[in-house]
Amino acid sequence: MEDLKKFIRDVPDFPKEGILFKDITPLLQDPVAYQTTIDYMAYRYMKEKIDIVIGVEARGFIMASTLAYKLNAGFVLVRKPGKLPYKTHKATYSLEYGTDSLEIHQDAIKPGQRVLVVDDVLATGGTADAVVNLVNILGGEIVECSFLMELDFLNGKEKLKGVPIHSILHY
Ligand code: AMP
Who has the most CB within 10 Å: 50, 54, 55, 62? Predict the structure, then answer.
């Protein structure tokens, strides 16, 4: 799986100075690399009876929705404030580059449903922590937070203490 690193492009100083942005578009553009990524993730959860896969706006939607299809699970969107049309719950979080809030529909998860959270990058863990909080508000059970890559030096794992985490690639 380390070979997948060839398809992650480093973009320095994006979206602001000092951030080394991990661009997954080359991986998405390569059919074999993308299929390998999704198949690898799907294999890990195939026997887990996942009810819902959550994707975080916007890049998180891509892998999460493909994975939901593979796992015969529902797909739930977590979005930036004001984007979801129905009644929402909100959680605020700090990002590697700024602060923001995330929202989920109040009827997105039923109590006890088994939830997989998927995103491209685990950085400081603020985003995933906010998603975990939203799932907890709705009474869902987090099976795991699953990332394509983890920026180990930002120690996101620390923020998500007690929550199972898996990342395919580590930097
Ligand atoms: P964090 O909340 O700090 O864990 O940041 C995770 C979210 O921000 C993910 O949704 C990523 O898509 C995005 N992100 C944070 N840092 C980077 C980075 N260096 N390169 C690409 N995306 C990032």
Answer: 54
